[in-house]
């Protein structure tokens, strides 16, 4: 059975790291049909649309999508694409690797970020010359669906290594957003209780203090949308930057995979971007499509290269994207 | 002229660190009239009200208030108290001290957090069994007032040492909250431009990655309410925890000073809490009331003790609150 995977390079280093990830996928004994599509600043400039309807439809109909990055149009591209694949959870692992300089080398966490609502539901109004409002949305149904996913994730041992049966932490701000985050917190904890999964909680501000002080106390963290955005990016800072972080936007019958980093305009076009985050996103794609062993193979190859292979400039090396990719391919 | 200062110890270690800070204030050649008032879990249990009207009125009428911490009732106490003193900005310095273990010893930043609106304006509705909403509020007037304060702050050289004329960074999420954070961002940058103050900007998620990677690139950071809450707590994690961080809620003609930490129920009542954050809050109170020299004296004394004096358990020492306080008094 062949998997139809839509490939959207986007802008900047997306055009360099996505091809690297596709090369890795092509090297495996898995049958893919890759369909290229456009999104981002360049296509916006050319056509007036950052996300052409054709790309949206392709992503919606595919088995999975691999996306790179978009520049100024990032929000116009990624938010509708998450919707196209009907994604309700954004899975964001942040792991420090041996051999890579990290502010906190003990960091090994996975954020499960609600991916449809919160402030991202985005009903904004300009009520007067002075006043604007945004209506933040939280539903029990989305909160419970995220929590069910989190419970399965933990039960299946997909959390950080050595953390498989330790449950999860829900991070929220229910002491201020009592009704909305209160609902989120209550539903997530109720689902955990029903399923017999351990769950504890942290206020998101306290979590932001504690994570840098001692990341080893956390494993899987379940968050509302914006909290997940900011707290997972904080974790990225602790493991040495965005160059290493993959992510999965998982839906009911579809999913989209993307490196957490952006287009890196300062180095775009030079062939020196770090392809690690894109390749690890491809590993998540493999696992999502049922090729768990191949996903693990890719991860192992990447870890090997990170620990004693060539490295790009962001990690203090001088290697090119191609050299790092070749080193990963060598180890498969 | 005597300054009327309302003193609210609150709960837990608030009852230990606030008296320490008052002792320090009493040791200075400044004339204070201290008025004690109650707030927090204990008074809620006794009277049904976490913040008695009397306390609110006292804070509203005083020259300044020194607050400790409240337990479960924290939000019910601190949010109305900020309103009582008519505070529009929460000033939160986060500085690593020589001799204190810090994840990022180069950290020396000051957050200026909007203190009246954002999600804290808190219009929440339970629209159905499934759905709750929160209306986030952003006004041009509050954004501009914060920005004016930030410009003066920078112009007066009150930012981190060596950073006095470097302007400020505004952190926001205007790529998603286009109308609300868009308004905030636009007004803050416009005021900076009008006043000839340098201002740059970061998306708050990118900021959360970059701060741990390289705090030395930031000085004064201007944020919406919740962003300021979370990002300043992140900075607390980088300097070694909440035990060191003071804060000021500044209004037009009144202000409230509080350590950023909470009630620390695990060590409350043992006399071993770190009084540093409360004493540094007292230093901010001195400066606010015009006693800049005395404020600096207190800071210097605290820094001296942190570098080679007795230290409490949270900093790896074995000293009591009283011993640390006595060491600070010795150096005044
Ligand atoms: C580009 C932006 C809309 C997006 C988000 O906020 O979700 C990005 O920060 C991310 O986390 O993928
Ligand atoms: C207790 C809580 C309401 C408060 C806030 O969110 O402002 C606290 O976290 C703080 O930052 O002072």
From TrEMBL, chains A, B:
Gene3D superfamilies: Isopropylmalate Dehydrogenase. GO terms for molecular function: isocitrate dehydrogenase (NAD+) activity. It comes from the Archaea. Pfam families: Iso_dh (PF00180). InterPro entries: IsoPropMal-DH-like_dom. Belongs to the isocitrate and isopropylmalate dehydrogenases family. The keyword Nucleotide-binding does not apply. It comes from Halorubrum saccharovorum. Keywords: Oxidoreductase. It is an enzyme of class 1 (oxidoreductase). This is Isocitrate dehydrogenase. Its EC number is 1.1.1.41. One of its GO terms (biological process) is tricarboxylic acid cycle. Residues 4-328 form the Isopropylmalate dehydrogenase-like domain.
